[in-house]
């Protein structure tokens, strides 16, 4: 007898879940960095545990299909308010709403206030977050809605800024009290120069507009320290706590320790890995081109649907007229619309431009990534979600994605030539001075270590500049390897001179390891006969025949005490004292010298009185 497969139980209707109050709330803390305290909690909704509707995405997707998304939003808010009141926590409650739900909330302001009063929640503790999926056709008519909510005591926030509909246009016109930076920009910001620059641009505008920034998606200490040191005041993410029905009342010990960490961040704008830079200084947009079919302007919405069904990996489709792009249709937005009841019957045969973005981001195929990076500073950031159209001399060539754009831009040089050494791509004198100033300004203790190579000039003369450059790149790679990129700043002063600003507690072990690794590695650049002889014959600076041993590394260090360094040194003086320590290190067999604060002060006085002695000959 053939067995029949088990039938799957149908998911309950959203309206039934609302009526039965079969929804629950969880809360994620939002941290105030300055005070090391919980500012408030974001209320999030969950469906019945263990069912297909447990996650918010599943809930709202089903609600959209049933045509009751706003009713679900209101029920979610009521559930969060009631659960938050029972917790009896201090701080603010952040609630997510679409634009349509916010309009209803403002229209029924008295009912909303009555619910809050009934539950004992002061309206001034409520922050209304406009979700990123919410398109607002007429922003001008939406301003009074926000004004009505503010009059009731609530604050207004833009959620997930930098993606989808959370644009600078809304920021300017709605003037939010709070702007939450999307986790895309915060995740790995400690090692991503482009994300760092994008967030810094947001920070500058927040300072001008008076908005408070909240960095979402903080998951590790390195990202937290960078965000903290940028001056962003608040954060949210798994590092502080996952959403929970009974979240912590206080900041965890790990998070508090990280917030109070004495070291300052090494900003990614001044961090350079030797393999990440593009020698050509740019990358053509054609390398990011996605070959994708386009539709003519007279195509229907049914044609768009058929194309998306045939090509499930296609993120968007361009609309063209006479081979020139006139619109762009985003898959997710389009399919979300078609999920609504009777949508296909009503709109299927209508022109596809009805739901197209008639002003898509269009870039020419010959444009470099450096030029495209300016998109991050523009008001229109839809390219992150929608992608963009790539043209060849104005004619449609294909599509590009926001993800590929960000990846490509992060792979090219960030610093201009005068900010980064063109051979090693390590930060040059300007970033070095800037980082020393930050260390001094934050009263951070550190070790300034000046690095030089013994006998480098004779090697360069004997083997040529090509081999000399390879030795310099070895030195840069060895030094980068011993540095903690989140704590230790490595710069290339020029030639065979480097500077490390150590905040790592085991800095001495790192210094000695660098000397050992370089001294061993440098010998491979010598010819076999010279390796056997232990060096090369050449002439000193006076033209006298001299035997020079292998190229070796010398590192002179000076300790800058926390809280006193700024009163004793300027940035230039620290570099100068470290250079004097380096001269001593070149005379030591170990290649290492550390001078204390008293001795460094004496050296500075001596340098002011007379010129420093000539540097020891290589």
From TrEMBL:
Pfam families: EAL, GGDEF. Signal peptide: none annotated. Residues 444-597 form the GGDEF domain. Residues 7-257 form the EAL domain. CDD domains: CBS_pair_GGDEF_EAL, EAL. It comes from the Bacteria. One of its GO terms (molecular function) is cyclic-guanylate-specific phosphodiesterase activity. This is Diguanylate cyclase/phosphodiesterase.
């Amino acid at each position: 007898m053939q067995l029949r497969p088990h039938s799957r139980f149908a998911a309950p209707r959203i309206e039934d879940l609302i009526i039965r109050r079969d929804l629950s709330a969880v809360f994620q803390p939002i941290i105030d960095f300055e005070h090391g305290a919980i500012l408030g909690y974001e209320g999030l909704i969950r469906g019945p545990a263990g069912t297909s509707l447990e996650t918010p995405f599943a809930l709202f997707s089903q609600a959209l299909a049933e045509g009751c998304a706003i009713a679900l939003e209101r029920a979610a808010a009521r559930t969060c308010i009631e659960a938050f009141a029972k917790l009896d926590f201090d701080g603010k409650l952040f609630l997510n709403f679409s634009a349509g739900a916010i309009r209803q909330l403002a229209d029924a302001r008295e009912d909303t206030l009555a619910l809050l009063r009934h539950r004992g929640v002061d309206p001034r503790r409520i922050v209304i977050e406009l979700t990123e999926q919410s398109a607002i056709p007429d922003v001008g008519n939406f301003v009074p809605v926000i004004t009505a909510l503010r009059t009731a005591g609530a604050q207004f926030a833009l959620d997930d800024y930098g993606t989808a509909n959370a644009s600078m246009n809304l920021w300017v016109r709605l003037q939010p009290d709070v702007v939450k930076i999307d986790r895309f920009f915060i995740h790995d910001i400690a090692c991503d120069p482009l994300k760092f620059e994008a967030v810094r641009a947001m920070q500058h505008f927040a300072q001008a507009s008076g908005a408070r920034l909240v960095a979402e998606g903080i998951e590790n200490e390195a990202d937290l320290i960078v965000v903290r040191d940028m001056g962003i005041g608040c954060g949210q993410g798994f590092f502080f706590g996952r959403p929970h029905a009974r979240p912590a009342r206080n900041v965890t010990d790990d998070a508090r320790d990280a917030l109070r960490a004495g070291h300052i961040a090494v900003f990614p704008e001044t961090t350079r890995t030797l393999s990440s830079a593009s020698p050509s200084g740019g990358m053509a947009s054609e390398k990011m081109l996605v070959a994708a079919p386009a539709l003519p302007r007279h195509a229907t919405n049914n044609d768009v649907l058929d194309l998306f069904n045939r090509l499930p990996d296609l993120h968007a489709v361009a609309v063209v007229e006479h081979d020139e792009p006139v619109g762009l249709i985003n898959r997710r937005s389009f399919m979300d619309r078609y999920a609504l009841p009777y949508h296909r019957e009503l709109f299927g045969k209508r022109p596809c431009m009805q739901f197209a973005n008639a002003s898509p981001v269009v870039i020419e195929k010959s444009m470099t990534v450096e030029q495209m990076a300016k998109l991050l500073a523009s008001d229109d950031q839809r390219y992150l979600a929608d992608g963009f159209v790539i043209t060849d001399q104005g004619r449609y060539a294909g599509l590009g994605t926001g993800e590929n754009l960000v990846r490509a831009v992060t792979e090219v040089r960030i610093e201009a030539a005068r900010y980064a050494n063109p051979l090693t791509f390590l930060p040059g004198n300007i970033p070095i001075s800037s980082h020393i100033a930050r260390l001094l300004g934050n009263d951070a203790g550190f070790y300034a270590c000046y690095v030089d190579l013994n006998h480098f000039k004779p090697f360069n003369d004997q083997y040529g500049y090509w081999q000399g450059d390879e030795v310099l790149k070895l030195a840069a790679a060895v030094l980068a390897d011993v540095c903690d990129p989140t704590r230790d700043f490595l710069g290339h002063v020029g030639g065979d001179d480097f500077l490390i600003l150590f905040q790592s507690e085991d800095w001495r072990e790192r210094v000695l390891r660098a000397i050992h690794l370089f001294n061993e590695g440098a010998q491979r650049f010598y010819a076999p006969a010279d390796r056997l002889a232990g060096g090369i014959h050449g002439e000193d600076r006076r033209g006298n025949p001299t035997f020079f041993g292998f190229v070796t590394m010398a590192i002179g260090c000076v300790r800058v005490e926390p809280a006193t360094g700024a009163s004793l040194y300027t940035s230039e003086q620290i570099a100068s004292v470290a250079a004097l320590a380096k001269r001593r290190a070149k005379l030591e067999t170990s290649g290492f010298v550390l001078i204390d604060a008293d001795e460094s002060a004496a050296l500075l006085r001596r340098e002011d009185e007379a010129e420093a002695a000539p540097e020891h000959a290589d």
